UniProtKB/TrEMBL annotation:
Keywords: ATP-binding, Nucleotide-binding. This is ATP-binding cassette domain-containing protein. It comes from Hominifimenecus microfluidus. One of its GO terms (molecular function) is ATP hydrolysis activity. PROSITE patterns: ABC_TRANSPORTER_1, ABC_TRANSPORTER_2. InterPro entries: AAA+_ATPase, ABC_transporter-like_ATP-bd, ABC_transporter-like_CS, P-loop_NTPase. The keyword Nucleotidyltransferase does not apply. It comes from the Bacteria. It holds the Pfam family ABC_tran. The lineage of its organism: Bacteria, Bacillati, Bacillota, Clostridia, Lachnospirales. The keyword Nucleotide-binding applies. Coiled coil: none annotated.
Length: 223
């Protein structure tokens, strides 16, 4: 897979007068998990939405290896996304839902979709409709949708929500495998230990501002 650099430069966003993002700059690379750490409402999800082009910045830019979002591309290309609860069709099974999405880009076929379902611990032959899925199963299906096309970039917001202990371990392993494959992964997770155990670097975000950039495991210099 090609090496890419995802860059956010001087990002500002206000919604109805409230500062959502303030002068946010960060740089991320292929083969790394970049963690976003911050309390509820600090701006992690909004930053992810800005990165993929779902919200338009007031100023600043998002670029992938020099290609600027909103100028050279309308949405971030080659990107798998799990942001908040993904919208699936209630009357479709898990496999039918993923096939519906896979048919948009036609980059993966039925066999790969089935394999992805198995990878997240779901049975591809499960005949239950999505509306009958438990919260954890819905979350697993959302993760499957994000990873099934083997994209260069993964934007993964709170992947561990509603997962049991085995599910957490499974998703941790999947994220590590995706990094190994060379994906650039942006990960938010409110549980600090979990985030630190997975991330190669962490940006701390508070009230829409980046306040720290940490390498987990490296002792901080005393101030
Ligand atoms: N649709 C919206 N309209 C206006 N403001 C919003 C909207 N969605 C979120 N916000 C505000 O944007 C700020 C950042 O929210 P965001 O969802 O990015 O936080 P977060 O760090 O992801 O929090 P959490 O850990 O709770 O998911 C908050 O102040 C929130 O109130």
């Amino acid at each position: 897979m090609r090496e890419i650099e995802l860059r956010v430069t001087g990002a500002n966003k206000k919604i109805r007068g409230n500062v959502i993002l303030e002068d946010v700059s960060l740089t991320m690379h292929s083969g790394k998990i970049c963690g976003l750490q911050g309390s509820n409402g600090s701006g992690k999800t909004m930053l992810m939405r800005a990165i993929c082009g779902l919200i338009r910045l007031d100023s600043g830019s998002v670029s992938v290896s020099g290609k600027v979002l909103g100028k050279d591309m309308a949405f971030l290309e080659n990107t798998g996304i799990l942001i908040e609860s993904p919208a699936f069709l209630n009357g479709y099974t898990g496999l039918q839902n993923l096939m519906y999405l896979a048919d948009i880009q036609k980059r993966v076929g039925r066999e790969e979709v089935r394999q992805t379902l198995t990878r997240v611990g779901l049975d591809p032959d499960d005949k239950r409709k999505f509306r009958k899925y438990s919260l954890g199963m819905k979350q697993r299906l959302g993760i499957a949708a994000a990873i099934m096309e083997k994209n260069e970039i993964l934007l993964i917001d709170e992947p561990f929500n509603a997962l049991d202990v085995d599910g957490i371990e499974l998703v941790k392993n999947i994220l590590r495998e995706e990094r190994e494959r060379g994906a650039l992964i942006v990960l938010s997770c409110h549980e600090r230990q979990l985030l630190e155990s997975l991330s190669d670097e962490i940006y701390v975000i508070q009230s829409g501002r980046i306040t720290d950039h940490l390498i987990p495991g490296e002792a901080k210099e005393p101030e």
